[in-house]
């Protein structure tokens, strides 16, 4: 379970986002709101990827553990963006192997086996040796998902990961993402502009609105 306890992100003395509540294992919290409201900043704050000029307060807990001030690599947070950001100089399986933590598999052979398992889950094992540059958008997204899950996250954060895909591909890709997140018992926080994404995930929705000057703390 993921829990927000008066978790807030402020910029220039103004609160951009403030969040309280829980996201259960396998469930999705959809964060919606206008451009510039602070949705991406919220995800980055959970992942530990922002510093000044942003100020983070309150707590984020995964299970009973307060991760708010842990280093990025100790948080167990998997993050997926609109751009799959695959490493161009590695094969598909190389990209996924790179994410497998040493505590999960030490030898190269063992990491490859774990990576192939994740590629199988996203129906991409047959393209394990492919060059990422030759993949379609949907395939790239599935490899990005395999790579994220290979990192053995405890929480999944999605920053408009389906926005670049056409409607049919979008529906298929997001179904895989939500199914695997549920299988792995991962709480998901998803930033999206598309209400259909939230509907498909049967998500709890939180609307973020830009703070006015003088509002917040
Ligand atoms: N590095 C930075 N330094 C200062 N301000 C920033 C920085 N990055 C973002 N901002 C500002 O923080 C605010 C929130 O940005 P953020 O990207 O979180 O919004 P968003 O809701 O995700 O927008 P979008 O839907 O367009 O992606 C915006 O006003 C933006 O201009």
TrEMBL record:
Keywords: ATP-binding, Nucleotide-binding, Transport
Protein's UniProt keywords contain Nucleotide-binding: yes
Keyword Heme part of the UniProt annotation: no
Gene3D superfamilies found in the cross-reference section: P-loop containing nucleotide triphosphate hydrolases (3.40.50.300)
Domain ABC transporter: residue ranges: 1-208
InterPro entries (alphabetical): AAA+_ATPase, ABC_SmlMolc_Importer, ABC_transporter-like_ATP-bd, ABC_transporter-like_CS, P-loop_NTPase
GO molecular function per UniProt: ATP binding; ATP hydrolysis activity
Family: Belongs to the ABC transporter superfamily.
Database matches in PANTHER family: SPERMIDINE/PUTRESCINE IMPORT ATP-BINDING PROTEIN POTA (PTHR42781), SPERMIDINE_PUTRESCINE IMPORT ATP-BINDING PROTEIN POTA (PTHR42781:SF4)
Protein name: ATP-binding cassette domain-containing protein
Natural source organism: Acuticoccus mangrovi
